[in-house]
Amino acid sequence: SGVCNALSLEIKASPKVRAFVGEQVLLKCSFKSSLPITESLLVDWTYRPLAGGPMETIFHYQSMPHPTTAGKFKERISWVGNVANGDASIAIQSPELSDNGTFICSVKNPPDVYHNIPQTVLVVTERGLAFQLTSAALLSILVFLPSALVVVLLLVRMGRKFRVLKEKGKCGYKKSSIEVSDEPEHTDTAGCGGKLKEWCLNCVDTDEEDPY
Asked: How confident is the prediction for the chain on average, in pLDDT?
């Protein structure tokens, strides 16, 4: 029973946090103890650089916050937690690329002092380059999109005109073929007229030959 009580302190922290250079980043940490929170509660944040090396304490809380007064995080750690609500979060001001590493939140609420050890990996990146790329992309869209739309509309219009001209060309070809097909009929009519004229001439010739 005593072992169970000793292990009843549970801590939760974000496994990975992303931040941008120069912009405040929040490192969340929450805890739950089976015992009431007292003034004996302790909170410690430690840090190990991404390249490796010894752990260093960057923040300590006991009744009141005590951020580190030395090292790279000097005057850049602020307390944003509330132990009464089980919150032991901190914030880092003006994060740098060199801040990348592993952060560990440790809470002790005597006699609850044993707990799990969650780790938070901080990844700091440059926002400036991403912002510039985004601005350039936006500018490109604003400049080239209207031009692209105009080109598309022109192509669509030209395509329609081409289809219309093509259809007209087909219609003209059919008309000429009809005219060509009519020519034989015209020739036949002329032939009939020629035959009629020839018959009439024969009749005239016959009438002239009757006296003989």
From this structure: 79
